[in-house]
Amino acid sequence: MDWMGLVQLAVILVSAALMLTGAGIILAGAVGVIRLPDFYTRMHAAGVTDTLGAEIIILGLILQAGFTLVSVKLALLGLIIFLTSPTSTHAVANAAYRSGLKPILRRWRSDENRGDAA
Questions:
Q1: Where exactly are the transmembrane stretches of this chain (predicted)?
Q2: Per-residue pLDDT averaged across 31-55, rounded?
């Protein structure tokens, strides 16, 4: 294998690792949306992990595309996601708060209902 073949293999491996990492982060956010107790913590889990996961996946796709017009379009898409995802998460959470949905301000699981048979 020559030098260029090794560089192409490295780019493919790094790109695949980035895309799998981004997918794992998005999966962790999905688990957080299912497991967390109230609307606001679920919104936080979804907003943070979706933005980070999408950005890491787009970075992996940019590496796959090389220095082309496609990579420029992917970078612009990443910029749009970086700006709009946190903004929309904040807007939805703010609308919920203004409509009267109050956050849970106590511990999620108290000591009484942990299930310990002590």
A1: 6-31
A2: 93
